[in-house]
Amino acid sequence: MTITLWHFLAVAAALFGIGLVGFLTRRNLITMFLCAEMMLQGVAINFVAFARYHANLHGQVFVLFILAVAACEAGIALALFLNLYRRRRSLDTSDWQELRETGVPAATDDDPLPRPPADPMPVLTPAGARPAPTAEEAARV
Amino acid sequence: MTLFALTKTQEAGGSVALAAVLAAVGVFLLLPRPRGRFVPGGIAALIAAAAVLGAWLCTTFGNPLPDAIGSALFWFFSAGALVFGTVLVVQRNPARGAIAFAFVVLSTCGLFLLLAAPFLMAATIIIYAGAIIVTFLFVLMLSQAEGPSDENDRVREPLYGSFAGFAFVGLVLFTLYQTSQANVPAEPGQTKPDGRLPAPVLTAEERKVLADAVAKLDAPEANLDGDLGTATARAKRAEYFEEIKFAVAKVVGESRATSTDGSLRARLEKEPARDGKPAVLYRDDPQARDALDRARRVRDANFDSALDDLSGPNPEPARAKLKAQVRKLRDEVALLYGMGELPADNVRNLGLVLYSEHLLAIELAGTLLLVAVIGAIAVAHRKQDKGAAK
Lengths: 141, 390
Hints:
The complex is a heterodimer of chains A (141) and B (390).
Chain A: H1 5-25, H2 29-54, H3 58-88, H4 135-140
Helix pairs in contact in A: 1-2, 2-3
Chain B: H1 8-30, H2 39-61, H3 68-90, H4 94-114, H5 118-142, H6 150-153, H7 158-179, H8 204-218, H9 221-224, H10 231-252, H11 263-268, H12 286-301, H13 306-310, H14 315-340, H15 346-357, H16 359-380, H17 386-389
């Protein structure tokens, strides 16, 4: 027995689900966009597998349309990202949570982010011999 | 599994649910957060989920050992797609996420090749390479400087999100299992549909005949144009097309009821039943059904009366009719020829299907692209601040 249609469908479903998890949980707009594209890839695998199974090309034609729609989506999404970034200087979706429905409590981040490690102070390598203080120098200080 | 005496459906449901829960736990552990990220545990849970899923696929839909190279490539590409997809989801750095997405696209393109879609592979790589480069530009322009940030190091509802996603996958897989007939016991004397990707329906000789016919029909002008005055000129042209006609008819049969079937129908169709029942297909896969459907269309498009008219007293209208018929027959034969083995003439067949059967959809897609471009410009346009100008 060889690879069957169901193998491809199962992989496509798993890819779609991983993309769905990423889209639901991540907060970076760009990562969410890539996860949505990954869901589209899963759907495309489904279409091509069915095209191969039925031995006609309609499934592949549908994938071409998916590509066109993905291109449109990318253009508009990136334009929106630019606009949103100009207003809040951040790609975080939670910055826009005042757009939520009424009655839904606001999401708060209780856990403080760990502070980035501070840059260590510069250390100069000792060069040459340390001058021995003379008697009159000590008196001057 | 004898301990609980589970039915096959319960076993399948249990495997799928176990894989889904393991994957959800793994992704939950791996999703970025300020503290408490348990990377080894998450990776172990994901590997366990993949193992359970792979074992279930093997036992349910068959162990794909005989076609060693094809199955090795399939497992390689699908594992690549899933692993890099997971990396994209759990990666803090969006630039690295974009690289992981590039590998997801490459693996998907490998699967496309296995599924006999070379043109789509090329198109996907080209388009998504551009998309990924643009995404990179955006990451470089917009991402903050070093250090943890809200958008990269926090996630929204990681537990609920991962369980929702993988519960969805589990349900889809379980539905797949239920519809795949893998759980239905085979009745004696009846082959059950197993979802196997079917072998090509056309033999090598038939493919050669059809390819010759397409090549001859591609250049009909030399044989159609020119002087039709003399009887020998007409006879010569008629002979050229008669030859094609009989070659095609040898494969697909003739449209006249009295004539014999072509080799394709003789091989694929069984004898029709006596008491008026429809003919039973010899090969019970959708590809055979599609091939017979295509063959019927070729049969209908084959030269019928125009050839006789060409030798008749009024050749000019017959010539125009013959030209239209040649074009139609050429398209149909090319589509049937492409069925023999899908990668053969993938681009030509895709173009034929695209511009003959999906023309309206193409126009709509073009309109959609135009609207998207205009919309993107309108959205990204920086509006003049009139209040500040005063």
